[in-house]
Specification:
Elements lengths: L3 H4 L2 H36 L5 H30 L1
Helix pairs in contact: 2-3
């Protein structure tokens, strides 16, 4: 009977695990920044003399959304390879 350690290669498995953890943490942090920026933009929207603040928080929100879309595309691409 062959030992289990000889049937599996652990190096690729560990690489997949740490890559997934890092990728997931980056996605969570970017999503959190995007939500926070969206809420700040909504607060600044109605305030007088805060147009530049509203625009800058909106740009941060759009940037975070773009990064999340890119992460989804990259994830789909990685799964199909």
């Amino acid at each position: 009977m062959t030992p289990f350690a000889e049937l599996m290669e652990f190096a690729p498995l560990l690489e997949a695990i740490w890559t997934s953890v890092v990728f997931g943490l980056v996605v969570v942090v970017v999503a959190g920044i995007g939500v926070s920026a969206s809420l700040r933009a909504a607060d600044q929207r109605g305030a007088a003399d805060h147009e530049t603040s509203f625009a800058s928080w909106s740009l941060v929100t759009i940037g975070c959304g773009a990064v999340l879309v890119a992460a989804v595309v990259l994830g789909i691409w990685a799964m199909t390879q």
